[in-house]
Amino acid sequence: MRQVASFAAVTVRTLHHYDKAGLLTPSARSRAGYRLYDESDLARLQQILFYRELGFSLDEITTILEDPQANALDRLRARQRQLAEEITRLQRLAEVAERAIEVQQTGVSLAPEERFEVFGEIRFDLSYATERQLKWADSAGQREAMARAAAHSKEDWRRLMAEAAAWRARLLEAHDAGEPSDGARAMDLAEEHRRHITRWFTSCPPDMHRRIADDFVADPRAFALVVPPSQQRPELAAYLGKAVHANASRTETGAARDVPEAQDSQVPQDLQHSYDSQDSQEER
Fold first, then answer.
1. What whole-number distance in Å separates Cα of residue 228 and Cα of residue 250?
2. Cβ(118)–Cβ(161) under 8 Å?
3. For a surface tag, which of 30, 133, 206, 274 has the fewest beta carbons within 10 Å of its beta carbon?
4. 142, 133 contact by CB (below 8 A)
5. pLDDT tens, 148-179?
6. CATH architecture of 2-66
């Protein structure tokens, strides 16, 4: 019996239970009284384990195996529907958990429905955010930016997102119009982005901004925090990255143009990039 239990990955107690329930009675016993299972018994055990894995009760399995009139196919179809409903329910729970985690990670004090209203299509990719937060969780830059984010009101976030949408529209216009990534228009957009991070979250000097832009190019999840997938263009991340690098060089040489503050815009998730980049600088 122990060999059968090991082979089927069940316990001896389980085999005893199946025997007492009349679900799996061994074909023979040894002189010492040990249960002996032949090939037909093992085949039946495989069927039992199959149905158990699908969530059938022992009574249901007994009916399926013993009653010639039992329609196993109908039962399997019914179970399939139940499992599909359960998967849907669990997916909804996972989404609720995701939103709860998101609130805890970002420090944004908004209810889920408010977050959807304010942020719309722009959302955290939690795998990305989690990696970053684990890496920089104890840094001063992370703590400062998280504190500032947590202090923003719903109206602050609404204004921030409106600015983000306007800035994103101008970025797409510049890209689609064929404006050079190192031209004045693209660099001005990059400067707006840099000032936005500083104003809303944490100081963002040119070198930090370069690292943020490099992250946009290297990680699609990072760039999705700036431009949602539905609005992206091929090479748009690279275009923005080059504009940021060009503007950083311009700023460091003192040639930066006077970009109006009112045009600064970016999505709130940029706080994650600004945290990471500032923290990286501190680590060095």
1. 28
2. yes
3. 30
4. yes
5. 777 878 788 888 888 888 999 999 999 999 99
6. Orthogonal Bundle (1.10)
Domain locations in the chain?
A: 2-66, 107-283
Q: Residue 174 corresponds to which amino acid? A: A
Q: What confidence tens digit (pLDDT) does each residue in 208-251 have?
A: 899 889 989 988 888 888 898 889 999 999 999 999 999 999 99
What value does the mean pLDDT take over residues 11-25?
82
Per-residue H/E/C for the chain: CHHHHHHHCCCHHHHHHHHHCCCCCCCEECCCCCEECCHHHHHHHHHHHHHHHCCCCHHHHHHHHHCCCCCHHHHHHHHHHHHHHHHHHHHHHHHHHHHHHHHHHHCCCCCHHHHHHHHCCCCCCHHHHHHHHHHHCCCHHHHHHHHHHHHCCHHHHHHHHHHHHHHHHHHHHHHHCCCCCCCHHHHHHHHHHHHHHHHHCCCCCHHHHHHHHHHHHHCHHHHHCCCCHHHCCCCHHHHHHHHHHHHHHHHHCCCCCCCCHHHCCCCCCHHHHHHHHHHHHHHC
Cα(174)–Cα(161) distance, integer angstroms: 20
Token couple for 28: 């023979």
Mean pLDDT over residues 69-77, rounded? 80
Q: What is the pLDDT of residue 210?
A: 93
Question: How far apart, in whole angstroms, are the C-alpha atoms of residue 163 and residue 197?
Answer: 12
